[in-house]
Fold this protein.
Amino acid sequence: MFFRQKSATLLRAVFLAGGMIMASPVPLFGAAYAEPALSPVDQGWVARVQDTMNAVTTMKGRFEQVAPDGQRTTGTVWLARPGRMRFEYDKPSPLLLVANDGKVVFRDTQLDQTTEIPLERTPLGLLLSEHVSLSGDVTVTSFQRQNGTLQISAVRTASPGEGTLVMLLSEQPLSLQGWTVIDAQGRQTRVALSDVKQGVKVSDSLFALPREN
């Protein structure tokens, strides 16, 4: 039962507006959902971030995930936009997550349990969309630039109460360093990226959706 609860908690935290970054040097946002009055300079930075994210087609890197209870896990992440991502957790973790075909599939081999969620209902939907947009269906709720770091908080415009995605980027070069999702109860799950390589060749087999045995 303990492991089943931990698995369910991790799934809820990571995907049901619960999420993934390492502790950032600037404070996290997520309490307010009103669209801020961004200065022209801030708007320019947000546009650059959007363009940068849209320029990424494939990626491979390492991640460290910190769950709301402080539990840390690590692994390797692959991305192929649009719509595909794989989080392969390091052993002894029994967890695997794959996004493909408009869904996110979470596999726990220890429990022999597979959970499927529509991609559009998860924070990954924003990162993996064919065209990343930080306007329209997405509302930027805060922007901060400090000490070479950019932080952008965003919600789904139609359902802001589901949770907040907080993206952390380096300014020079402009690149995604990780993200946090803050759920409706204020719980934060953070993921930090490292050793990121963009434009790498990734095999389609990496994104085969896991199934129950």
